[in-house]
């Protein structure tokens, strides 16, 4: 695939190796065993997963973060590179393991997660590839909560000063204390990409649009919040739109948020307004959710654009 020169993105932050097990209805007790249909590993995380899908959509994509010198790190590098991600900015560390998750996927696509933070918790501004960020068109920061809002603000503000579009996605749950923890970075975020549960929990509201507006009041330029089967809600200072989800046979929801982020950001790079970009995000998520893992789907930008063209009518308000 030939990368489109109009988008050079640094996907910085949390890179995770996911091991997915499908389908799991119960965890056996004691030393019990259970046959399953499939076990698969994939690159994931709000930086790593988004990077992978962006590369499939034709963006020039560079991963920046920290991984271990272990076999998990070797595998994560190989999986990212296989799908066209430049991994040269990933630092390798021997004092912690590569961040990893084990995800037993239920028949309906939902899942619990067993997770090790690992090297993702060691990365901060001292590690940031400043020259590469300044040369990019987009900086996507995955899981700023791992370094804290003040540290993340250093990186995001530098990007903004160099004309780089910034976006952020978090992995922490919707609990009010997390919003204060990342608050310092929010004025430097052009596009915040949470899910609806995070929006409601962080802001203490019972309405997603109201919650998104509370995040705008913290300095964010635009909030595009995913809402599962309900699609996405896009809120800016000029108004709000609901973007319906595309019909899909749900196999695994682990890659939904990251694939939405990738499609949304790719749309922005093509000059689309946030609501149009959210359609591309929902179209991308519908492809990924139909299989196991963030790397599922044989698609490229052209096929996603064609699929997005079948979108139902957008709803304002």
**Category from helices, strands and their pairing:** alpha/beta
The span between the termini is: 38 Å
Q: Approximately what portion of the residues adopt beta-strand conformation?
A: 25-35%
Question: What strand line-up does the widest sheet have?
Answer: 5-4-1-8-9-10-11-12-13-14
Describe the largest sheet: 10 strands, mixed
CATH homologous group name: Ribokinase
Average predicted confidence as pLDDT: 95
**Count of all domains:** 1
Q: Count every helix, treating DSSP H or I runs of 4 or more residues as helices.
A: 10
For the secondary structure, the number of strands is 14
Low-confidence spans: 1-5
CATH topology: UDP-N-acetylmuramoyl-L-alanine:D-glutamate ligase
Order of helices and strands: EEEHEHEEEHEHEHEHHEEEHHHE
3D shape: globular
Write the CATH architecture name.
3-Layer(aba) Sandwich
Radius of gyration, in Å, reads 18 Å
Query: Which CATH class applies here?
Result: Alpha Beta
Residue share in helix: 25-40%
Q: Tags for this entry?
A:
14 strands; alpha/beta; ten-stranded mixed beta sheet; 25% strand; 317 residues; UDP-N-acetylmuramoyl-L-alanine:D-glutamate ligase; disordered N terminus; four-stranded mixed beta sheet
In words, what does this structure look like?
By secondary structure, this protein is α/β, with parallel strands linked by helices. The chain has a single domain (12-25, 38-316), classed as UDP-N-acetylmuramoyl-L-alanine:D-glutamate ligase, CATH 3.40.1190.20. 32% of the residues lie in helices and 25% in strands. The protein has a ten-stranded mixed beta sheet, sandwiched between helices. α5 links the parallel β9 (165-169) and β10 (191-192). α6 (196-203) crosses α7 (208-216). The longest helix is centred in the C-terminal third of the chain and has 15 residues, at 274-288. It is globular, with a radius of gyration of 18 Å. Mean pLDDT is 95; it is low at 1-5.
């Amino acid at each position: 695939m030939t990368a489109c020169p109009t988008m050079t993105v640094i996907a910085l932050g949390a890179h995770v190796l996911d091991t997915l097990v499908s389908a799991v209805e119960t965890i056996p007790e004691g030393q019990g065993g259970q046959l399953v249909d499939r076990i698969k590993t994939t690159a994931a995380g709000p930086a790593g997963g988004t990077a992978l899908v962006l590369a499939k959509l034709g963006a020039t994509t560079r991963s920046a973060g920290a991984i271990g010198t272990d076999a998990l790190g070797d595998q994560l590098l190989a999986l990212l590179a296989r799908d066209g991600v430049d991994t040269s900015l990933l630092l390798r560390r021997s004092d912690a393991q590569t961040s990893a998750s084990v995800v037993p996927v239920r028949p309906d696509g939902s899942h619990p997660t067993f997770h090790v933070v690992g090297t993702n918790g060691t990365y901060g501004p001292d590690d940031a590839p400043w020259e590469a960020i300044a040369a990019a068109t987009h900086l996507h920061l995955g899981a700023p909560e791992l370094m804290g809002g003040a540290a993340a603000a250093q990186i995001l503000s530098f990007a903004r000063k160099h004309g780089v579009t910034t976006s952020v996605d978090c992995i922490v749950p919707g609990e009010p204390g997390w919003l204060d923890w990342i608050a310092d970075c929010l004025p430097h975020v052009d596009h915040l990409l949470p899910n609806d549960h995070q929006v409601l929990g962080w802001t203490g509201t019972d309405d997603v649009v109201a919650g998104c507006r509370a995040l705008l009041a913290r300095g964010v330029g635009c909030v595009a919040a995913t809402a599962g089967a309900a699609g996405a809600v896009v809120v800016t200072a000029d108004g709000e739109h609901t973007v319906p989800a595309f019909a899909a046979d749900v196999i695994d929801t682990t890659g939904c948020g990251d694939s939405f982020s990738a499609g949304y950001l790719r749309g922005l790079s093509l000059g689309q307004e946030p609501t149009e970009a959210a359609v591309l995000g929902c179209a991308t998520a519908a492809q990924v959710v139909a299989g196991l893992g963030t790397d599922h789907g044989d698609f490229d930008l052209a096929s996603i654009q064609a699929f997005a063209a079948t979108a139902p009518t957008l709803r304002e308000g």
